[in-house]
Design brief:
Elements (H helix, E strand, L loop, with lengths): L2 H8 L5 E5 L2 E5 L1 H7 L8 H5 L2 H8 L4 E6 L7 E10 L2 E8 L1 H35 L2 H4 L2 H33 L7 E4 H9 L8 E5 L5 E4 L1 H18 L6 E7 L4 E8 L21 H6 L6 H11 L3 E7 L3 E9 L4
Parallel strand pairs: 7-9
Antiparallel strand pairs: 1-2, 1-5, 3-4, 4-5, 6-8, 9-10, 10-12, 11-12
């Protein structure tokens, strides 16, 4: 291959090799970083050490194949070979780990969503079939009890479908930076006022206004989800505190605190995963869908902010959001 061609390959981020007569005659910096600088001059079978990849490279017509084990970390690679001339091949290596991870996450999401919908649906069908029997259908007390269960499970399915649709809408616009001006202090007070429960929800702010560039509907959804979580999983009848504080670095901190049982440390890193629950039975009994914190995370990321959860068992939990303030 001409010198100008190898100079061009040297500037590629994709690992690339030139194989001549079965040996590696050239490797760009990306390939050396992946396989080691010592591969130049080696037999390609020793440099690659993967029978499927070597078969493609040494074949007469070239081609591509997917292989594991070319590097540490369990990445999946596509080995692509182009024939340059008699005995000379251009080999490119493409890291497919991101695509594989996305595909796996999609499959897991579909499986979890199907399971979450199937559970209440099975309960609804079971109770309906029982009500259709003369003995149960003719007993007013049994009929009322069964219908209440059916209503509860139907509402659970409705909440799940609404959260799934909400998550889908948020992901569809996640790359669009919101541009409307939203006063986060006024919105926090307005949202907290929507909750009429036995527990007290209080708002404290260190300034009268805290404008951000945002989507008002989505930020209200974030605050509702966090306050609702604090009321559900905090101490029964206990206080929930929402704090809004501006920082000298141009950010505003919104913190929602409860005084509940708290969350064990091993659960904290996974709380924003879809359908992850620290306490499955308690979450379902409280009407949780397992998507609320995932929705919060996606909305905060769309607003170029940061979301964090801290908790101490027996003390309580704090959900914190950092958002960039609009410059005057």
């Amino acid at each position: 291959m001409a010198v100008s061609g190898t100079n061009l390959l040297e500037h590629l981020q994709t690992p690339a090799l030139i194989v001549s007569g079965g040996g590696v005659s050239f490797a760009n910096a990306a390939a050396k970083g992946l396989l080691g600088a010592h591969i130049v001059g080696q037999d390609v079978r020793i440099a690659i050490r993967n029978p499927a990849a070597v078969a493609v490279i040494m074949g007469e017509s070239g081609g591509s194949t997917k292989v594991d084990g070319l590097s540490v970390g369990g990445s999946v690679w596509e080995v692509s070979c182009n024939v340059l001339g008699p005995g000379e091949r251009l080999v490119s290596l493409y890291d497919l780990s991101v695509q594989v991870s996305v595909a796996r996450a999609h499959a897991d999401f579909v499986a979890n969503a199907s399971h979450e919908l199937r559970t209440p649906l099975a309960a609804i069908l079971g109770y309906v079939e029982t009500l259709l029997t003369p003995k149960a259908g003719d007993d007013p007390a049994t009929r009322e009890r069964f219908l209440n269960v059916i209503r509860h499970e139907a509402l659970r399915m409705q909440s799940l479908v609404e959260d799934l649709m909400s998550l889908s809408r948020i992901e569809a616009v996640k790359h669009e930076v919101p541009s409307d001006t939203v006063d986060i202090v006024a919105l926090a007070r307005e949202t907290a006022g929507e909750f009429r429960t036995g527990a007290e929800v209080t708002i404290t702010a260190d300034r009268e206004t805290a404008p951000i560039a945002g989507d008002r509907g989505q930020m209200a959804q974030v605050l509702r989800n966090l306050i609702d979580n604090a009321l559900k999983y905090g101490k029964k009848g206990g206080p929930v505190t929402v704090t809004v504080e501006a920082t000298d670095t141009g950010w505003v901190l919104i913190a929602v605190r409860d005084e509940g049982e708290g969350i064990a440390p091993e659960h904290l890193p996974r709380l924003t995963e879809r359908f992850y629950r620290a306490d499955t039975s308690r979450s379902r009994a409280a009407g949780g869908t397992g998507l609320g914190l995932s929705i919060v995370k996606h909305i905060v990321e769309r607003h170029r902010g940061r979301f964090d959860i801290t908790s101490r068992p027996g003390v309580g939990t704090t959900a914190s959001i950092m958002l960039p303030l609009l410059k005057p």
